[in-house]
Amino acid sequence: MSARSSAARLPHEPGVYRFRDRRGQILYLGRATDLRSRVQSYWGDLRDRRHLTRMVARIARIEAVACDSVHEAAWLERNLLEAGLPPWNRTHGVETSIYIVVDPRPRTAGVRTSHVARFDGVVGFGPYLGGTRARQAISGLHRAFPLSYTRDRLTGAERDIAASRGIGPRSRERLAAAVIAALDGTDAGAVREELTAARDRAAAALNFELAARIQEELAAFAWVTSVQRVTVEGGGDQDVCGWADGLAVTFAIRGGRLIGWEQRECGRSAVARGSAGTPPEWAEFARRNAELAAALIRG
């Protein structure tokens, strides 16, 4: 099966893909919101990617990992490129790695970004990729649950807004808990409901600029709360293995980051130990990506 034909077997899911030449050398690694559409585009009009024309002619095999979110695909691409840059890749990635901090302390209450994972006296979440998305998500969190208006010292304008919303120091614990529940996934729906209602009110009032801004906050909040397991703060080391139709896929996780991805043809018995040692939370991920690998090679 040609590489172009195997591209049609990719799922319409987010993920990471890489191209190999006939000698098995990795030519290029990229990420996609829709794997099939993105990879098939290399055999169409390349437009601003015309410099890749010579590379496309050398593609002999496509390999791919299907991810559970675009955010997860972005992290996986970054990790793999940092581990090794293929010849046709130009950079390791441009998104900023960032954390979101929820501060419940009286003098500094609020939600903010941090570029370091130091959370003394505060609650930290992340890491996330994309400083702009993180700040938009924080804007949405503030719109839904304005924790910063419960600080001990507010400006006159802030006091007026807080009073109009019935918010004060006694609201601090409740609002901090709501923001934390939104970011840890316990109750992300509350933020989505608040922002959706605010967006619809703005649109009904013909304030389309505000409605668009809130829609961006909704998208950013979805980004930071989507499934993302390939980069975990404080994570450990482990190998994740899946097998399907005579083909094994192994992922190397070091320090909480998935940094290696290999696949090889072998019998099930050859990876029995690796499969048995795969943590339950990774088993489905490994299985479906082994099935994808087999589909791309076997046809």
From TrEMBL:
Q: SMART domains, per this entry? A: GIYc
Gene Ontology, cellular component aspect: excinuclease repair complex
Q: Which GO terms describe its biological process?
A: nucleotide-excision repair
The UniProt record lists the GIY-YIG domain at: 12-90
- Which Pfam families does this entry report, sorted A to Z? GIY-YIG
Q: Which InterPro entries match?
A: GIY-YIG_endonuc (IPR000305), GIY-YIG_endonuc_sf (IPR035901), GIY-YIG_UvrC_Cho (IPR047296), UvrABC_protein_C (IPR050066)
The record ties this protein, via Gene3D superfamilies, to: GIY-YIG endonuclease
Which SUPFAM superfamilies does its entry note? GIY-YIG endonuclease (SSF82771)
Name of the protein in its database record: Excinuclease ABC subunit C
What is the source species?
Nonomuraea jabiensis
